[in-house]
């Protein structure tokens, strides 16, 4: 039976601004031995699956500095902290990145752990129904974004071809597909 | 139109052993301004969806030090490097974590970017058909693993309840579901 590992120590060891690395010392309940683990702490992630009235999915294409290539993804970003409700943050990111918005409340599809071995944060996944284009996108200086509208069938073919390969986007689409939402 | 950002500099700034943090300086093709980005470099991740002959999915439950809680996930781990083919690594992780194996070649479902903004690495997602229990699991000293067999219907209900919330596992299940594999 899996049991929690008691946490013996936790210290910040590197600060990148957008994330901090902590070195945690935890004790195995199976062996009694203590081991060190490095964990990244950062703001929660927000991801939104925006559906237009005609059933198209609003996606974004942007250059990503980890993969050093373009990525076709669902809109999203970082949660702005305790003063922002996550659903408001998801609607904010949708508007900033795409200019699309909806008058309906966003529906939560799931709250995930992006990588529970390495990352302490969570990812809030929302469905936005009946979105329409309202305003020009307002990307920040670190972003360069193209808006791409895709039918559900095109999404499947672009996943199969490998063009859609962002795991968080796949996770959100998987949640929505398993829930029968698109 | 999104264009690549020319990379001006890249320096390692923190070494955690399992990952290294690089500070990359890149130039926006839109504004001409240079900006710094922190990127994690680590081994590729391997994830495997193991299906028994009766159609059950072999999953693992383990304590995770990022989320500091139990996580119900697909088996997987880190790619051992250039001397190991990724499919061999996935089969190795499956055997180590669960004791299950198959005589058939593993089928690649996709090669994802776990988080293309933050992580440079990729995740190799495999389907293992007709797995059966062969050997005792061999978890390493940093692992404490329970093996859990689930029917496809149970997977859906445990995703809906939030018990399955690892984004990489959701991405792999989404790939498999969209591909019609389970």
CATH class descriptor name of the largest domain in chain A? Alpha Beta
| Count of separate structural domains of chain A | 2
Helicity level of chain A: 10-25%
Distance between the termini of chain A: 38 Å
CATH superfamily of the largest domain in chain A: Nucleoside Triphosphate Pyrophosphohydrolase
Envelope shape of chain A: elongated
Mean pLDDT of chain A: 94
The most extensive contact between chains is: A-B, 71 and 71 residues
User: Structural class of the secondary structure composition of chain A?
Assistant: alpha+beta
Order of helices and strands of chain A: EEEEEEEHEEEEHH
Fraction of residues in β-strands of chain A: 35-45%
Low-confidence stretches of chain A: none
Give Rg of chain A in angstroms: 18 Å
Question: How many beta-strand segments of chain A?
Answer: 11
* CATH architecture call of the largest domain in chain A: Alpha-Beta Complex
Largest sheet of chain A: 5 strands, mixed
* The CATH topology of the largest domain in chain A: Nucleoside Triphosphate Pyrophosphohydrolase
Oligomer: homodimer
Description:
2 copies of one chain form a homodimer. The model of chain A has no long low-confidence stretch (mean pLDDT 94). Chain A has 2 domains: 7-42, no CATH class; 45-178, Nucleoside Triphosphate Pyrophosphohydrolase, CATH 3.90.79.10. With 182 residues, the first copy, chain A, is an alpha+beta fold. In chain A, β2 and β3 (34-42) form a beta hairpin. Chain A is 19% helix and 42% strand. The first copy, chain A, has 3 helices and 11 strands, in the order βββββββαββββαα.
């Amino acid at each position: 039976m899996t049991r929690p590992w008691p946490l013996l120590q936790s210290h910040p060891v590197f600060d990148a601004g957008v994330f901090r690395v902590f070195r945690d010392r935890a004790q195995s309940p199976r062996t009694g031995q203590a081991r060190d683990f490095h964990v990244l702490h950062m703001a929660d992630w927000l991801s939104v699956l925006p559906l237009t009235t005609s059933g198209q999915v609003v996606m974004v294409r942007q250059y990503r500095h980890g993969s050093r290539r373009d990525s076709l993804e669902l809109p999203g970003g970082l949660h702005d902290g305790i003063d922002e409700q996550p659903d408001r943050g998801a609607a904010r990111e949708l508007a900033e990145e795409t200019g699309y918005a909806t008058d309906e409340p966003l529906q939560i599809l799931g709250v995930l752990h992006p990588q529970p071995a390495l990352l302490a944060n969570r990812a809030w996944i929302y469905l936005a129904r009946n979105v329409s284009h309202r305003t020009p996108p307002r990307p920040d200086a670190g972003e360069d974004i193209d808006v791409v509208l895709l039918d559900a069938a095109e999404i499947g073919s672009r996943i199969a071809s490998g063009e859609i390969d962002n795991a968080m986007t796949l996770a959100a689409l998987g949640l929505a597909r398993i829930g029968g939402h698109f």
